Amino acid sequence: MTHLFDICGMPAFLEPWIARFYTPLEIDLLTALERGAMTPSDIIGTLGGEITDGLIDRAWRRGVVRRLEDGRIAPANFHVRFESWALFEGWQDLPEEIKNRLNRWELDHYEAGHREAVESLKAGGQRRASEVCPEYLLLEEVARLFDRIPHFYLWPCNCRAMVRGCRLPRLTCIRFSNDRGIGWEISRERALSIVREANRQGLMQSAELGVDSQGRFDGALCNCCNDCCFPHQLARERQAEKIWPLSRYLAELASEPCNGCGRCVRRCPFGAISQEKKKKGLPPSTPVIDTALCRGCGLCATGCPQEAIGMRKIRESVLEAYYA
């Protein structure tokens, strides 16, 4: 079965675990496609037996094959299969070592795909609106953005499904297109409700957005944690903490009185807010915001019961003109 590594790019260390990702009929299907893309009727004519239009459609939805614009069927890259498997099928009985290697392989792929953009931004380059890049959005910006989006599809978060590094909610990814038709189409109001609840539970809003030549948005609104999120992992490894996702705000204490509850300290994913331990008989101290660590995600501000934290804009986004 080692030919599958060449057909779909499956990493070689998964050889003992092929059956966890592909059924025997799917392996037959991929083997038939090794020589080139085929129409569904040609596939059925070549393989016969149990190969049907329904099986081909199921293989497409599972990320085993892809459909070309001319209707022919071709093998899908294993990155697509892995995402579908992690999102909807679970990790089953893979050893922990194999899980970690698979996530490292996926992160390396993500880094390779974005390395040039990250290094350009670090060097002071300007982001192009046509490039899909992550940037933090405040809740009010999400609402304005959603006014420009015609369709919303709810997906599980692929980062948390793969990495499993926290216990925060997974059914939170709002995509603007529906690859392979497997997301749930929801209303704008429902999408906003999911985003607000995700924020309440401590997830940051990061828009992975680009704009096409007709001014239409492409991408998704992610509700991210700092433990599993691939953009945040990339940022740590490439020292791009304020670039990827793009930081556009800084938190600062507002004029409203702080009651010293410490909730902002607990909600900050980056340890940017500190507070001296309360001393007996004395009022709680005012938190201190380290602007060098602050990414401007806004979780501290949305969680403050006194509205004592504001968000000061420090950078414009090339996308603001499209949804402001």
Structure commentary:
This protein is of the alpha+beta class and 324 residues long. It folds into 3 domains: 3-88, Arc Repressor Mutant, subunit A (Orthogonal Bundle); 96-246 and 319-323, no CATH class; 249-313, Alpha-Beta Plaits (2-Layer Sandwich), CATH 3.30.70. It is 37% helix and 15% strand. It has 13 helices and 12 strands. The protein has helices spanning 3-8, 24-32, 40-47, 53-61, 78-88, 96-122, 139-146, 158-163, 188-200, 230-237, 263-267, 299-303, 320-323; strands spanning 65-67, 73-75, 133-136, 152-155, 173-175, 184-186, 204-211, 217-224, 249-253, 273-274, 288-289, 309-313. The protein has a 6-stranded antiparallel β-sheet, covered by helices on one side. A hairpin with a 5-residue loop joins strand 1 (65-67) and strand 2 (73-75). Helix 7 (139-146) packs antiparallel against helix 9. It is elongated and about 80 Å long. The protein starts with a helix and ends with a helix. The model has no long low-confidence stretch (mean pLDDT 93).
